[in-house]
Amino acid sequence: MADNNIFRLENVKVWFPVQEGFFKKTVGHVKAVDDVTINVKRNETLGIVGESGCGKTTLGKAMMLLEKITGGHVYYNDDGTERDITTFNKDEVFQFRKKVQMIFQDPYSAMNPMKKIYTEMEEPLIIHGYKDRAEREAIMEEALKLVNIPVDYLFKYPHEFSGGQRQRVCIARAMEINPKVLVCDEAVSALDVSIQAQVLNLMKDIQKEKDLTYVFIAHDLSVVQYMSDRILVMYLGKAVEMADSKELYDNTLHPYTVSLLSAIPVPVIDREKNRIILKGDVPSPINKPSGCPFHKRCDKCMKICEEVEPELKDVDGKGHFVACHLYD
Amino acid sequence: MENNNKTNTIENARKYGTKLWKKKVRKFLNNKLAVFGLSVVLIYILLMVLAPVVTPWDPLEPNFKVKLAGPSAEHLLGCDSLGRDLFSRVLYGGRTSVLIAVISSLIGSAIGTVLGAIGGYFGGIFDKLLVRLQEIVSCFPQLILVLIVVAFIGTGTWNLIIIFALTGWTGCFRLVRSEFIARKEETYVKVCEAFGMSSVKIMFSQILPAVLTTVIVQLTMNIPGYVMQEAGLSFLGFGVPMTVPTWGTMLNAAKATNILINYPHCWLVPGAAICLFVLAVNFFGDGLRDVMDPRQQ
User: For residues B225 and B167, what is the distance between their CA atoms, to the nearest angstrom?
Assistant: First the structure.
């Protein structure tokens, strides 16, 4: 079972200090990711959802070592042995970079506007030791074929591409060095809907072809449902519910997930919708409420919720995790 | 379209790729003022380089027979109070003036760019120290610095260049530093980090090329300033020695009241030379900025 996990996060915290005054005294922390314990299985797509500012992106970046991890451990298991990436030295980080790549949210800024696509795609290959130009070009050609971009686009500049094309080039660039895991940070939210579908299908095809593991971060619930095998719901830096995609939608447990799912628009006129609108705002991640982070907006709030923070527990023994006192 | 491209090879594609510089050249050539500026600057440079061919007169040799003579066929722009040919002096003097301006600007920009890149990208205590240093340098009155240096080691072309370079890097430093601070947060820098690119490589191959265009523009814009400063300092007698012809020393030689009133060509000629050059470089610099600035594409 443990061997099946490519990533295992244990009590991961990413806190950003809040500094004030002339001497930059640290007066508190923005707890972007607070005590998250999850696992990512090999060859699955783990969707991460949650509203803006709940720490989805930070969690993804932490897994990529692009954000400094304040506490906890991230175990990465590529060849059968689990290793903690937070203790990696420079060389190990470099090897790790080969295996885990990221697709960024905004394809418009993910490419250097000064450089041709050719240079853009060549650079990672040079870094990772492909010395022969012909070899590099063969790899680039293959990667572009994977995303259906003709090779003559290589000698154009990013501003000559449309958003969908750019995102596909970004995917091709990430795929060049044959990663095992692709962290997709809102990979399609900057694209319009028709192109979204195109890119999503492409990503599914690539996953089948290359045995990839996706960590798919998004705020669009229907996109996540379409893509993911399992879904993690985050709220205020905490993991509140994690389950198989179908199970999560059919048998929603956490009140926050219930209200989140009720927000999905349904293309049926006259259908009675039980839309749950949450009261108030998301509390500040600097001064989190005591107990359950969701208790101030929860309609099923009990006394214990205000005092004790619920833990993420497997409630049905089959991998439906939820952090809520209702299911204790 | 897709079908055509299946037969395409990378080699083939390379030939038909976008040539951004061609677009830029075309855009520059459409800007009439900039083309005018560039042509004037080129004519200046050509005349200065070919000075021995263009004019038979030695800029240093006095000839009292033609003292203060007005323009004539023999002396195109007339002669100064010692009978030296003014046209010849404008050309030879321009060599020194422009050289001082260009070299000071180059050295100053180089220092500013390197320090700004390091400070902006890495930040931290070193950056803070650099910013303080920059503030001290830009607060210090340049004239006093010039006086001190002149008092200790005397006047000279290189002394002037050193002072200009040591006081002139601050503008470039601020510019490059702020550009680096802004650009290191760009997603494409994060992408390079995710690929495992080293920070030095990110600095020089990712961020610097974008910043460099601004630096080149700034460098061009600095040149006329230095030409003016050289003229000003030489006019006061603190710049290059009076024996070296520059546009500044020429003006200095024409500062007697008698000459100012009765022989205006003595100061009009170097004055006009400075004016035209400064104007031309400014027009050129403006045009260059319009073309190079990545924000204006």
Answer: 13
Overall number of domains in chain B: 1
Report, as an integer, the average pLDDT of A184-209: 85
Cα angle value B149/B154/B156 (rounded, 5°): 95
Q: Are A230 and A244 in contact (CB under 8 A)?
A: yes
Instruction: Please report residues of A whose CB lies closer than 8 A to that of B201.
Output: 127
Q: Does A10 touch chain B (CB under 8 A)?
A: no
The answer to whether residues B245 and B92 touch, using CB atoms and an 8 Å cutoff, is yes
Confidence at residue B17, expressed as pLDDT on a 0 to 100 scale? 67
Residue B211 CA to residue B201 CA, distance in Å, equals: 15
Residue B25 lies in a domain: no
Residue B64 lies in a domain: no
- At residue B202, what is the residue type? I
Per-residue pLDDT tens over the stretch A167-186: 889 988 988 888 889 999 88
Q: Return the CATH number at B53.
A: 1.10.3720.10
Determine the pLDDT at residue A3: 66
Concatenated DSSP letters for A199-210? HHHHHHHHHHHH
Task: Give yes or no for a contact between A117 and A155, defined as CB atoms under 8 angstroms apart.
Answer: yes
Asked whether residue B141 is domain-assigned, the answer is yes
* Domain range for B288: 41-57+103-296
The answer, for A129 touching chain B at a CB cutoff of 8 Å, is no
Asked if the structure places residue B7 within a domain, the reply is no
Report the alpha-carbon distance of residue A239 to residue A223 in Å, rounded.
19
Looking at residue A284, the DSSP 8-state letter turns out to be P
Alpha carbon dihedral B34, B38, B40, B46, in 10-degree steps, equals 180
Determine the distance in angstroms separating the CA of B139 from the nearest CA of chain A, rounded to an integer.
23
pLDDT of res. B18? 67
User: H helices then E strands: how many in chain A?
Assistant: 10, 12
Of the residues B6, B188, B204, B205, the best mutation for testing chain A's interface (the one with the most A CB atoms within 10 Å of its CB) is: B188
pLDDT tens digit sequence for B195-237: 888 888 888 888 888 888 888 888 888 888 888 888 888 888 7
3-class secondary structure, A104: coil
CA dihedral B153, B158, B159, B162 (to 10 degrees): -140
Mean pLDDT value across residues B250-258: 82
Residue B107: per-residue pLDDT: 95
Give residue-wise pLDDT tens across range B157-202.
Answer: 888 888 888 888 999 999 999 999 988 888 888 888 888 888 888 8
Nearest to B194 among A64, A152, A160 (CB): A64
Instruction: Return d(Cα B52, Cα B75) in angstroms, integer.
Output: 15
